[in-house]
Q: What sequence folds into this?
């Protein structure tokens, strides 16, 4: 018999937790250094890699932030390794490729750091410039041969090679304050949300030009692709989600009880877990668009991942 467990980072509680996704009961928690943020899980579902952002948000001034990635064993729920990214700070965006190589973005230095064997090493194998300014997030191809930096301060998207520091990044402007991103399965289209334009755009990754665009709710900070193939923006300027197909035809809006921060999906394709302002998780029925239930979390729930565990 299996059990649905939600792995959740709570940024302002500085804590990674496991919740029973059905009852909402917290099963375990791990206190980390202040302001852990984004995380990724390896292909086995055994290990999580948590970036130490080290600050509350991208607009913080006078604090260099963190310079580590924490490796957590999800079976024992213990910290088993710490990867140093020094002297590159504010580790935010993370990625993992089909060989379980880890990529960590230093927002403070616009530098992508590569760890070929993140379970066995403590320092990076390679550092590559993103080609932009204030690189908050990035999209990565499955093989890890291409990356797309999402640059808050230069208002650019940059295409670069994570394994080739001699390649000159290619930049384009998708809109004002790009942040949310989702790369299509074939790698040919990069969907970007522009927070200051209230828009979502489809970027052709070969020509690095905008193919089409659509209007979202206010301040779309993230884009997610649900198991039904729909694109969903979390609208941080209002309590809503905007839905689109891959041609960016609008599919409707889902109203929520509070501002959405982040979301993840159950492998069954039937439900999503939406982190909300007010320290709650809303469990969303993807077919009806209705919230089935919600449960309380620690302070500032953010990134999550649904793990199916055998008893």
A:
């Amino acid at each position: 018999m299996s059990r649905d467990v939600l792995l959740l980072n709570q940024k302002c509680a500085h804590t990674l937790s496991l919740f029973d996704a059905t009852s909402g009961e917290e099963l375990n928690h791990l206190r980390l250094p202040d302001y852990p943020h984004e995380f990724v899980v390896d292909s086995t579902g055994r290990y999580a890699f948590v970036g130490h952002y080290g600050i509350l948000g991208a607009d913080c001034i006078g604090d260099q932030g963190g310079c580590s990635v924490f490796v957590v064993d999800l079976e024992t729920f213990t910290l088993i390794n710490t990867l140093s990214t020094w002297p590159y700070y504010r580790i935010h965006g993370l990625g993992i490729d089909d060989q379980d190589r880890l990529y960590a973005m230093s927002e403070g230095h616009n530098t992508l750091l590569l760890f070929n064997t993140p379970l066995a090493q403590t320092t990076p194998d390679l550092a590559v410039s993103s080609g932009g300014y204030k690189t908050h997030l990035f999209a990565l191809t499955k093989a890890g041969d291409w990356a797309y930096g999402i640059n808050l301060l230069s208002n650019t998207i940059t295409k670069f090679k994570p394994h080739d520091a001699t390649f000159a990044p290619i930049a384009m402007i998708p809109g004002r304050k790009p942040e949310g991103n989702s790369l299509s399965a074939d790698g040919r289209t990069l969907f970007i949300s522009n927070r200051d334009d209230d828009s979502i755009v489809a970027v052709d990754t070969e020509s690095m030009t905008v193919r089409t665009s659509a209007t979202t709710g206010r301040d779309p900070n993230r884009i997610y692709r649900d198991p039904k193939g729909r694109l969903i923006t979390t609208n941080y300027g209002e309590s809503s989600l905007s839905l689109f197909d891959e041609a960016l035809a609008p599919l409707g809006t889902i109203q929520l009880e509070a501002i959405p921060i982040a979301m993840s999906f159950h492998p069954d394709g039937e439900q999503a877990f939406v982190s909300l302002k007010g320290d709650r998780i809303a469990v969303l029925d993807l077919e009806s668009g209705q919230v089935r239930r919600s449960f309380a979390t620690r302070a500032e729930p953010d990134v999550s991942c649904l793990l199916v565990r055998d008893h």
Notes: The radius of gyration is 18 Å. The chain has a mean pLDDT of 97.
